[in-house]
Amino acid sequence: MNPTPIFQYRLSMPSSRVYPGAHVGRRVSSGHLFKQHEPLIAHPDPRRIDLRASVLDVFGQYRVRVYQQHSLIDVLLLADLSASMSQNKALLLASLDSIAGSAFSYGDRFSFIACGGETTPRYQLSHCQQQGALRSFCKQLQTARFTPQNPTWQALLPHLPNRPSLVFLLSDFHFDLASLAPILPQLRQHDVIPLVVWQTGDYENLPEWGLASFQDSESRATRTLFMRPALRRKIVQNFQKRRRHLQNFFRRFGCEPVFLQDHFQAAQLQAYFLQRVA
Known about the structure:
single chain; 6-stranded mixed beta sheet; 5 helices; alpha/beta; 3-stranded antiparallel beta sheet; 27% strand; elongated; 26% helix
């Protein structure tokens, strides 16, 4: 069995969690990164008295060194289970496995919430930190039905944590973005990373001449077109235009989308996080 490909990540803001972890936090406690001096009465730990700072204190108080605590974070994957995502099931499962494995390597908690046409999520995994529970959930997800309805992202908000978390938003985004626009401002306390999954066969491997049948994944309606070079170029240009539109849309809310084409690559997300901290 091949090991799960993982990647390194970090939040764009310090974590405010109480529990110790691997990420830079806002709390002061045990740690290795010096933050500031505090009066001994505020942090009664005589082991950390700084004699030089105490001698220089104008009020004659003992000063102790306090350190910044590294804290854990929550990692969430919000996935679209509408019918148009049925051809991306393998990519969805690979993304779930890699993101969860990366969270486990940091000791963070991983959650998965599926977004369909229902008002309550059909598939949900909360605060998972065990490989066994993840494997059982993946087997359940392999038999999931993709419903021909627009995803109701609003239904996911009550299930999200109140503290800043890393949130991956996975979909092909072949729907009206006006339904997503009211949701993103409510996710600004989180670090949101949209994952756009596309199949290049939908627009790059089309014939220049001949008849081609297309099926709408949501309505199941089929349409036969006579392909020609001008029509093929128009289809490719429309996908490129949609890509630019998605980039501009998410950048309005402080997000930079990642385009996953055909299959999931952990190295692509690794490069994304390295570029973000550069």
